[in-house]
Amino acid sequence: MEEVRKRILIRGIVQGVGFRPFVYQSASRLGLKGFVQNSPQGVIVELQGQEDTIDQCIEILKNRPPLLAHILELKIQEIPIQNETTFSILKTIQDEEIATLISPDVATCEECLRELFDPQNRRYRYPFINCTHCGPRYTIIKEIPYDRENTTMASFRMCPDCEHEYHDPSNRRFHAQPNACPVCGPKVWLTDASGNEISCEDPIREAGNFLKQGKILAIKGLGGFHLACDATHEEAVRRLRERKNREEKPLAVMAPDLEAIEQFAQCTPRERALLLSSQRPIVLLLKKPGHPLADSVAPRNPYFGVMLPYTPLHHLLLREGFTALVMTSGNISEEPIVFQNDEALTRLKNIADAFLFHDREIYIRTDDSVVRCMANVPIPIRRARGYVPIPIFLKRPMRSVLGVGGELKNTICLLKKDQAFLSHHIGDLENSETLSSFELAIAHLSRVLEISPQAIAYDLHPDYLSTQWALAQTGIPKIGVQHHHAHIVSCLAENKREDRVIGIALDGTGYGTDGKIWGGEVLLADVRSFKRVAHLSYRPMPGGSMAIREPWRMAIAYLWHAYQTQLGSDSHEEGFWEWISPLPFVQSLEKEKWQSVIRMLLHFPFPETSSLGRLFDGISALVGLRIRNTFEGQAAMELEMEMDPTASGEYTFGLQKENEMYLIDPDPLIGEVYHDVIQGRPEGEVSLKFHRSVVRVFSEICIQLRGEYGISTVALSGGCFQNRFLFENFLQTLEKYEFTVLYHQQVPPNDGGLSLGQAVSAAYQLEAE
Q1: Cα–Cα distances in Å, from 350 out to 79, 216, 235, 245?
Q2: 247: Cβ–Cβ under 8 A, 6 or more apart, which residues?
Q3: CA distance 557 to 666
Q4: What is the spatial distance between Cα 652 and Cα 657, in angstroms, rounded to a whole number?
Q5: Total number of domains constituting the chain
Q6: Each residue's pLDDT tens digit, 653-701
Q7: How far is CA 272 from the centre of its chain?
């Protein structure tokens, strides 16, 4: 039979995942001739031999690729035969437009772990062991294609043994770009807080000894530094909080294995699978009663944020006899994670007692990802290490647009054809350090994806640094996208929908088209435009942004309005003082404080808000749970966590329609909550009744809108859908009424997904021009 030759172009995540070695081994086993080659367009494979054998090889490539590979497209064409006798791997082509995808960083695989703890292996206890199935990818890559010279491993020349592995097609490290060993690879060392190296035989074991003594270590990891201490050592955890200026926000922990986690947390099968996945995110797990971890790890919170080791260094350190280590981002509060050695010594020297350094450069800083299982579905809370830069696949190709995100939980997004690439979590854009990180993320992602945006999409809030940056760019169109519309479009985009839906956008803050602060919104929205059809009635925010930090201010504002309207009372402040004085939260405040707020409400205009997040704050303060936030969303989170699932009943929102707009009036609810608090009803009961009321009133509006507009699909987005009760009960209630419900599974419902919605909406608007 005559030979034929076929050329196959494979597009997707096919670089840095062992794809070329896999092709080589598959073709060689079948006796085929030809080559495999990385190119900017994807992986090129040319196969020569009997046609049925070639087709057999193509089936293997399509249906049994390496675990970390993701094939988007496979194109085949027949070409003339060549005079070849073997199958080989050719040097990468380096021109034209990039079409291959970069792999995210991958947790250490089981085979490398076995070698790591095998005394007979030449990589025994080597903290940078990796292979084509695991190790650093995104955090070390400078340019595409993914070859060693384009990564931060370029400065480490492979020794003869590593070189042999790299070129041996039968070896697991065949073309593993970060391949290294103790002879030729990166090194680890320990220093004191001043950077003086501590002489010791094994820096990782010595670091473990320091941690057992209650010391705080700054540990260089995969995407940046962690600040670590023994999670069972109460004094060490308290000291870390004081030094980092992190009063009460929960701290993440890392445990050596599932058996250790079972000592302090409950774990469902779905959560267990997430913990063991190659992404190794932080997973929110319910605490076990009587757990051995320090109370200061996650005070007043029934959950721990838990992850398993994902680098060899972590595995070595955790096996020094720890139940768990606190592993929190290496930064001062509100600043980006530190990722360079010199920077760490400068910025973390007043927090850490010692530093565990290594000399493999991190090119792009990346935080740990965070996931919460709700309705047995993993919902991303922070999308970063392990997931970035895997794209969100869109319904169809779009023009290239840059979405610059919002202020909190900032990410950026770049569109390229039918893919949306979100950056790692950048953080809160509130200072020059984070703005610099934001600019670096845009430059890096644009470069490695070879994207030159045709437009920039931004939030309407004029004070956001991302908005100001966007508007300062010259020679490129800029398109403003309203905050809550962007939330809904991000949900539509990841669900590959373009059509009009009922969008429920619930969060803490977002600049509205009327200049007010929105956040309790129902929109009729498609990818291009929206119509606001329902919202929470506006209430003032006494002190502006101070009302976010001090929820008691919102409680006073809601009570004052309810006192005037629901109780038919006049506006004399003396009567109001008398009415609210029995409330526990009022008694905990200095009298002059709350009286001054009332006077200001009478005489000064304040920003007005329709935010559900602010209503959560107000209720949390009203029931006596939280009058001051030490971190964003704390009052709302504690109200959720305090809920008593065995309680019954719900409260009443007012609902009326004015000029085609449904207004949701919280005054009746505030009056009922006031009554329950005065009667001494438990906080958990009040919380449950409040949550139920929110689900009921927004579901009722959806039913009304379906009758008016014939729309039966509801999209849920916004930070409030990180609340497990709200998410699960909205889903259950709406599906009971036969709605199709769209929600987030690939990007966070919070502002971390905002840039995706901005970019996609702007791209559709450009298309319509």
Answers
A1: 65, 10, 17, 11
A2: 241, 630, 631
A3: 11
A4: 16
A5: 3
A6: 999 999 999 999 999 999 999 999 999 999 999 999 999 999 999 999 9
A7: 19
Direct distance between the N- and C-terminal alpha carbons of the chain, in angstroms, rounded to an integer:
57
3-state secondary structure of 755: helix
Report percent pLDDT > 90 for the chain: 85
Q: Tokens 């450009």 appear where?
A: 766
CB 565 within 8 A of CB 632: no
CATH code at 68? Answer: 3.30.70.100
* Strand, coil or helix: 372: strand
Q: Is the dihedral of CA 492, 495, 498, 501 positive or negative?
A: negative
C-alpha span between 56 and 30 (Å, rounded): 9
Write the DSSP assignment of 291-332 as a string of letters. Answer: -SS-GGGSTT-SEEEEE---SHHHHHHHTTT-S-EEEEESSS
pLDDT for residue 94 is more than 70? no
The residue type found at 232 is T
Do you find a cis peptide bond into 145, omega within 30 degrees of 0?
yes
Q: Give the Cα-Cα-Cα angle 388, 389, 394 (nearest 5 degrees).
A: 110
> Does 79 share its domain with 192?
no
CA atoms within 13 A on the CB side of 131: 21
Whether 594 is covered by a domain: the verdict is yes
Q: Which of 49, 65, 89 is the last residue of a domain?
A: 89
Given a contact cutoff of 8 angstroms between Cβ atoms, the answer to whether 689 and 650 are in contact is: yes
Cβ atoms within 10 Å, residue 496: 13
Domain contains 704: yes
pLDDT tens track for 228-245: 999 999 999 999 999 999
User: Could you give the 3-state DSSP secondary structure of residue 557?
Assistant: helix
One-letter amino acid identity for 266? Q
* Residue 569 shares a structural domain with residue 693: yes
Residue 100 confidence (pLDDT): 62
Residues 587-634 have pLDDT tens digits of 998 888 878 888 888 878 899 999 999 999 999 999 999 999 999 999
331-364 burial: b if 16+ Cβ within 10 Å, else e = bbeebbbbbebeebbebbeebbbbbbbbebbbbb
The pairing of strands 530-536 and 539-540 is unpaired
Query: In this model, does residue 145 exceed pLDDT 80?
Result: no
CATH number of domain containing 649: 3.30.420.40
For residue 101, being part of any structural domain is answered with no
DSSP state of 15: B
Task: Write out the two tokens for 738.
Answer: 């036969």
Tokens representing 167 are 């070129």
Report how far residue 26's alpha carbon sits from residue 31's, in angstroms, rounded to the nearest whole number.
Answer: 9
Give the amino acid at 241. R
Return all residues near 268 (Cβ < 8 A) that are at least 6 apart. 373, 376
Tokens of 296: 């200061």
The two tokens of residue 519 are 């956040």
User: What integer pLDDT is reported at residue 12 of this predicted model?
Assistant: 84
CA 576/CA 597 separation, integer angstroms: 12
Residue-level pLDDT at 296: 98
Query: How far is 677 from 671, CA to CA, in rounded Å?
Result: 10
In a domain, 510, yes or no: no
Q: 548 and 696 share a domain?
A: yes
- Quote the domain boundaries for residue 647: 535-742
Hey, how many other C-beta atoms are within 10 angstroms of the C-beta on 298?
Answer: 22
DSSP one-letter code for 368: P
pLDDT band per the 50, 70, 90 thresholds, residue 21: confident
* Co-location of 64 and 212 in the same domain: no
- Distance, in Å, from the CA atom of 693 to the CA atom of 612, rounded to the nearest integer, reads 12
pLDDT score, position 519: 98
Where is 12: in which H helix or E strand? strand 4-13
Give the containing element (helix H, strand E) for 43: strand 42-49
